[in-house]
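Appendix C reproduces, verbatim, an entry submitted by the partner laboratory led by Prof. M.T., so that reviewers can inspect both the input and the predicted structure.
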Amino acid sequence: KMTQQMRDLQLAQARKPPGPSSPNAAKRLYRNLSGKFRVNYTSFDEGSLAGRGEKEKLRKSYLFQSNAALFEAVELQDLDRVQDLLKQYSPEELDLNTPNSEGLLPLDIAIMTNNAPIARALLQAGAKESPHFVSLESRSLHLSTLVREAEQRVNELTAQVVNEAPNTDCSEKEKQLKAWEWRYRLYKRMKAGFEHARVPDAPTNVHLSVASSSSVQVTFWEPLSVNSAVVTKYKVEWSCSPTFLPLLGEAVIDKLKNLHFTIQGLVSGTAYYVQVSAYNMKGWGPPQASVPPFAIPSNWREYDGRAPRRRGQAEALDHLLGQVKTVHQHCICHEPCKNQPQSRKHSVSKSLKHLFHPGSKFLKTLKRGLYLTAIFYKDDNILVTHEDQIPVVEIDDTYSCLLMQDFLWFTKVSCMWDEILWLRQCVTVSQSSCSCILQTRFKMLLAISQMQGLLGIQDLGQVFFEPVKDKQGNILIVTLKEVKTNQTFESVRWVPICKLQTSRKSVSSPEEPTALDTLLISIQDKLAYHQRSSHALSPGLYLGYLKLCSAVDQIRVLVPEQLPNILCHVKIRSNPNISREEWEWLQKMASVEEPIPAEPEAETSQNHLFQELQVAIKELMMLVNIPLQEAKDFRLYSQEVLDFGDQVSFLLLLPPSDDVCTAPGQNNPYTPCSGFLTLPLQIFELGEE
């Protein structure tokens, strides 16, 4: 109702030209008109200038209306409307931090009416308090002035309504009177909210941790008190003295989406004390010291001076590959091989002829052999040939049993899709040995080249962790790639996956499906695996569980289906760094003979890590379906912290040495719950990279 009254008032004022109805109305009108509708005429093209000027006026008028709508929503305490406006417009478009003619900002109104939900929403959007309030006295005086002016205006309008005869002007004045009465009550409520407010209590759960060899991180929660005004900022102070004299530095945090702060540029090995205090419109509250009371910047590597495991490895491998390419650049592998045995020469020439012959195309059916298929997908669509078939090319029609060594070699080749031609030339030099392994791998390279040529793209994506087989002797090696742009390919087109699955006519029985039918049936699972294997963990320290099982030709590792490129894990904390003191405590814990070492001293980083590990181990044991009492025989891997980059690090939890790897036929009494799978170790290593 009041919203409608305010709108009626604005319409009435727009129709009626007399002077402003409040002492500040003239200033407000001038400021709004001059600031919002000013146009800079700089073009000699009057037609285009007029068009641009009108558009600019409309745009600014629209934004001005949104700014007014935000003030109105805050004054009416309409949280839903405030949230909608903050989502719809940027802070700049809303003029979120530009005071109105009364010198108030939306955040000022929210905190002085003690509307905590709206105040928090504004703070998370980047709202600030008015810079006019430099002291408590200035804020109190300003509010008193607003209340006095509103009261004066109400008295004037009341007298006019009582003394004038009923007419149109009187009706308009009644509307103005109701609007000013409402504003008078608003200002009184704001003044009372300010007078009854008190400084905030100290923040809670102030925790200090070591972030690196030169930084510490402090995290905290809001004060528990619900009676004080809304907290609008926090102050973090640090010193080398527990008395905080002298003070080494301080930082004010006014972006309250995440309540944490990292103090950078500290000296390794030096103890730093940290405290945090909160601020509201009544001033700063008392500081709260952190737990533990101090932290010493360090890293676990300082314990024994160990260098990062992967330092320089990528550069060294690139350099080594460059050297190999240089050596092979002028070698015999770039010349035709003339001394091959007749049978092999015929096979190679046949493969080459098949590759470069104009009739080279995708296969429609499988006969018995080894094949390569490439699955490209975008949203719910998949690339198929003009015959509505998944792209398939032949690797070897005489190969009916894929050796694990050959498959794993193919997965490594997938890291060098752009180097297939060079790899083919390198493999050719050894053809005279008549090695079956080399022949198979050479044919794999030929099939990759053929698939790349038919699709017109080099990168075929990631190899699925196991081939698709059928009882007819067909084996499909599957690659998967997500296309995120509107990319065009040769000889193929996009179709919905559901349409492909429903329209394809199976040529096999349900009891013995062909490899292609099996692929089509399970394609959604394979796409889900591919998407999940590219997900990354959020920064933090994790506890991983290493469980292996061996077969005749491979070792497999247990991983979660939702994140198959990472070991089974739970998050210990958001800070990925292990300090020197924490690592030293872990070393002592790993060396004791008792199954449960004594707890470290209270209010230390070691004690906090001990508590975090206890929670993480319980959660991890429940996740992998192992009774908690069995965990007493488990051990932490104490040789190193596994660093996966991007602020992600792991501590490993290992079963007893005899149970780390389950042998073929060995009974494992504790089978993980659903949601896990086992990957070949080499595939897992490639995915982890």
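The radius of gyration is 36 Å. Additional entries are available on request from the coordinating office.
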